[in-house]
UniProtKB/TrEMBL annotation:
InterPro entries: EamA_dom, EmrE-like. Keywords: Membrane, Transmembrane, Transmembrane helix. It comes from Maribacter orientalis. PANTHER family: ACYL-MALONYL CONDENSING ENZYME-RELATED (PTHR22911), MOBA-LIKE NTP TRANSFERASE DOMAIN-CONTAINING PROTEIN (PTHR22911:SF79). This is Threonine/homoserine efflux transporter RhtA. Residues 14-136, 148-277 form the EamA domain. One of its GO terms (cellular component) is membrane. The chain crosses the membrane at residues 12-29, 35-54, 66-86, 92-113, 120-140, 146-166, 178-199, 205-227, 234-256, 262-280.
Amino acid sequence: MKNNHIQHLLEINLAMLFIATSGALGRYVQLSVPVTIGARAILAFLVLFLFCKWKNFSFNIYKKDILAILLSGVLMGVHWITYFYALKLSNVAIGMLSMFTYPVITAFLEPLLLKTKFQLVHLLLAFLVLAGMFFLSPSLDFENSYTIAIGFGVLSALAYALRNILLKRKVAKYNGSILMTYQTAIVGVLLFPFLFTIAPEQIFSQWQALVALAVLTTVIGHTLFLMTFKHFNITTVSILSSVQPVYGILIGAVFLSEIPKGTTILGGILILSSVVIESIRSKKQPKLL
C-alpha cells in the first residue's frame, strides 16, 4: 500500500512536470491566445484520438454524463485561454502563481457543490492567498498589466477548480485519455474559427512549439493528471499539484531567462504555504469518492 502511494505521488509529480511546460511555451508562442489554444486543442485531439483508437478504448458516453463532459470541456477552454492571457501580460512566475490559487478555491467550492462540511481553517488559507496576491502585484492598478494578469490567473483558477470537481466522479467510469479527447475536441470546435483570422503561414511557423504544447503539456501532462483523480480526493489532488509552479518557474528561468523578483518569490511562498498547510491538514482525511 505504501509503495502504491509513493507511485501515485511520483505519477502526479510527473504530470505536473509536463503540465508546467505550459508556462514557458505559452510565453514563447508568438500567436494570439485564441489561435494558440485552438491549434493546441486540435493537435492534441488528433494525437489522443489516434492513441485511443490504437488502444481500443471505448468512446461511448452515458447520456447522463454528456452535459457534464460538455461543460468540463468549456471550462477547460476558459481555463486555458485566461491562463495564457495571464502569461502574455506578465511572466511565467506571476502567471502560474496567480493560477495556483485554485487549490484554495477548490477547498471553498467543495462544501458548496459537494455538500461537504465547511472548515474555518480555509479562511486562514484564503487570507494567506490574498496576502500572496498582494506581493505579486502590490499596486492594485487595473492599468498595470501585472494586475490584469493576476485577474486572468484567478479566473483561470476558478474555471480549473470547477472543471476538476465536475470530472472527479467521471474518472471512475472513463479512461483519462477518453475524457481528454472529448475536452480537446470541444475546445477545438469552439476556437476553430479563430484559426482563419491569421495567415496559415503564421501558424505553421510556430509548429514546433504548438506540437510540444499539444503533446507534452496536454496529451501527456493533462491525461496523467486526470488519472491521478482515481487515487486522491479532488482537494488533495489540487494541493499536491502545487509543485507545478516550482517546475514552471525553473523551466522559465532556464529557457526564457525569467528570474522572478523578490516580491514575486515572497508572494509565491505565501500562496504555496496555504497549499502545503492544507496538504498536511488533509492528509488524514478520507477520500471523497
